[in-house]
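Hey, I was hoping to borrow your eyes for a little while. There's a protein on my desk that I can't quite get my head around. The fold is given in discrete form, as structure tokens running alongside the sequence. I'd be grateful if you could look everything over and explain what you see. Here's the protein in full, and shout if anything looks odd to you:
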Amino acid sequence: MENVQKVMTFLLENKLLLSALLVFFILLIRRLVLSRIRGDAMFLSEDQRKWISLTKNGAFSILVLSIFLVWKSEISEFALSVTAIAVAVVVASKEIILCFTGSIQRASSRSFRIGDWIEVGKISGEVIEHNLMATVIQEIDLYHGQYHFTGKTITLPNSMFFTYPVKNLNFMKRYVYHSFSIIVPGFNNLYPLLPDLIQKIEHHCEEFIDVARRYNGVIEKHAGVDLPGPDPHIHINSGATGEQIVHVMLFCPTEQATHLEQQIRSDFMDAYHSAYPDKASAA
């Protein structure tokens, strides 16, 4: 018992050594816990990502609190000594403060959680980690209508949440309103082609249309708005130089969106070639 007291007294008198030991043991325990959570899985599940993020944030909080308690007296003296330059400190740490308050804003508004698809400005991806300073996402290519991961990991400072609106795209993980356009040169009557095209689209979608209707109803109930619905929508307008633009919108499984688009484009080209063989050859 006496030896333990001597060791404790020695550590309290040598705060640098005590701080180093605290950092070592906390990081060691953190690494062991993360290794246990990760296991041998090649790909992390959403639950694993949540526990990993919780472990990292908890270890960081415990580490900061421990270091503060060890150096409390020195920190108090330092705080008094920098009172005169407090304004300069605030200005210099403006971005850090914004990141911290952005984290509070995210947590209080519950705008997203780990595993959600989000869009911040022109950046979109799946949230894989968030902490007091930043949010980490796996980028998803939404602007080209592909809905696949690009392989890029993006770290967003939480201060961005005050500059850009955060769009939660989580419902798009399963089904998506996929829109695309087909440009037709010349000014031909395309409306007679639409009934057969709609029938072919419905044939392509018949294997999932019942699930799509139920999922669309769930989204409408959750959002409290009247959405366009799961049925395909087609409309035509004209471009500035006289070409016609056929707009198609589908409510379909996200992973099938690109494949369905290619099938529909092929169906339209076949129908257009049959209806206007001379125009199609000239184009």
Summary: The radius of gyration is 29 Å. The chain has ten helices and eight strands. The first strand starts at residue 117 and ends at 120.
